[in-house]
Write a structure and sequence with these properties.
The protein is mainly alpha-helical. It is built from ten helices and five strands, in the order ααββαααβααββααα. It has helices at 26-33, 37-45, 64-78, 83-91, 99-110, 122-129, 135-143, 163-169, 176-211, 216-255, and strands at 53-54, 60-61, 118-121, 147-149, 155-158. Strands 3-5-4 form a three-stranded antiparallel sheet. The longest helix is centred in the last third of the chain and has 40 residues, at 216-255. It starts with 25 loop residues before the first helix and ends in a 22-residue tail after the last helix.
């Protein structure tokens, strides 16, 4: 059985239709992501998608984790990774990874790719977002680089890699300028890392390999293997970022007498010490 290409969902990692708190049925998940039910079940059989939670009448319900994982899979496939490579990448992720962490993985994966944008009807954008988008929401999403307006008020130019995170940030009670500065910092440094790693691989691995005059089939094999390196590097980058962030939070908490940002009392634990590392 062959799979259909994964079209990454641009919606936020929140359950959609159905009774409150019950998540999505497989049909609703298919409509939300643009995939077929057959494809979703195929990915479940391959272990790419976690099993749903069984609700009343043993109807499977899909939630935030499933939407986030499908979005990540979509970004990896858009880079040309095979299903086997995607499966190996997902196997390395922690079993208890959160939708937020999956969103971070997806955002960092997207920085390795050329910017892409799709013209999408406004109604479809709201369906993908899982919420009604006001004019103010659209302005904020445009400022974050998630979309742009077009000459047609009923069509938007959407960056599918940035829309999910942009929607999640709409209700964050911090100034828009702070969000923009945060995004610029992340993009600046991840692109710098990508350039340096690409240069390192080209100069110390690929160039010496080619200069050794390998057979054509060996060159093709080397190119295929290099595709598998990229998701491993992305995961290492995410892990390093999370570790560095925890260290910064711990240092900040220590400098402020054990109280991190947002703590309101002496019994509040520093953010970096809440929960397992």
């Amino acid at each position: 059985m062959t799979s259909s290409p994964i079209r990454p969902s641009a919606g936020p990692e929140t359950p959609g239709p159905g009774p409150a708190g019950t998540g999505l049925t497989v049909d609703e998940l298919a409509a939300r992501t643009g995939l077929t039910v057959r494809t979703l079940r195929f990915y479940s059989s391959k272990g790419l998608l976690p099993p749903p939670v069984l609700g009343p009448r043993r109807v499977g319900r899909y939630g935030a984790e499933h939407l986030a994982r499908l979005s990540l899979i979509g970004e990896l496939q858009r880079q040309g990774l095979t299903l086997a490579a995607i499966e190996r990448y997902l196997e390395q992720l922690p079993a208890d990874i959160t939708p937020e962490d999956l969103s971070l993985h997806r955002a960092l994966v997207a920085t390795w790719m050329p910017d892409t944008a799709e013209r999408i009807p406004r109604g479809r954008v709201q369906s993908l977002a899982g919420r009604t988008l006001s004019e103010h929401d659209l302005d904020r999403l445009a400022a974050m680089g998630a979309l742009d307006r077009t000459d047609d008020p009923e069509e938007l130019l959407v960056n599918p890699a940035m829309l999910p995170l942009g929607v999640r940030l709409l209700d964050v009670p911090i100034p828009l300028e702070t969000l923009l500065a945060t995004r610029e910092i992340v993009l600046k440094h991840t692109r710098a890392v990508a350039r340096e790693l690409h240069r390192l691989f080209r100069e110390q691995v690929w160039r010496p390999y080619v200069e050794g005059e390998p057979a054509p089939e060996e060159v093709a094999r080397m190119r295929a293997l290099s595709q598998d390196i990229q998701p491993a590097v992305v995961q290492a980058l995410v892990t390093a970022f999370q570790r560095s962030l925890r260290e910064e939070l711990r240092a900040s908490a220590t400098a402020s007498g054990g109280r991190g940002p947002g703590d309101t009392g002496p019994d509040s634990a520093p953010p970096g010490d809440r929960g397992p590392a």
